[in-house]
Amino acid sequence: MASKDYRYEVPVVKLERAMRVEKALVEQLEKAVSKKMLSEMKKEAVDCPVLKRRVSFLQCYSCPNFIRRVRGVVYCRGLALEGGSEGA
């Protein structure tokens, strides 16, 4: 069996209202995913183990630490981020 490629398993949290996300990030993701999927993703968040705060799933999805999402769980590399506020 291969060694695990992630450090954290972070559950995705469903929100009633969408979290605020940078417009540039949304525009970048509009090219990659459908509008329906994007609107669903806006209403999800994760408690980021790297930034130690809750962030929008869109921000997590675009983070270099993001590996995959399976059945409501995000697999995260957990590496330190340059700049501090970007990603995860």
Explain what the structure shows.
With 88 residues, the chain is an alpha+beta fold. The chain has one domain. It is built from three helices and five strands; from the N terminus they run βααββαββ. A hairpin with a 2-residue loop joins strand 4 and strand 5.
Provide key terms for this protein.
88 residues; alpha+beta; 5-stranded antiparallel beta sheet; 3 helices; 5 strands; 24% helix; globular
Which helices and strands appear, and what pairs or packs with what?
Layout: E1 8-14, H1 23-30, H2 35-42, E2 44-48, E3 53-56, H3 57-61, E4 66-70, E5 73-76
Antiparallel strand pairs: 1-2, 1-5, 2-3, 4-5
Brief description of this entry?
The protein is an alpha+beta fold and 88 residues long. The chain is built from 3 helices and 5 strands. The protein is globular.
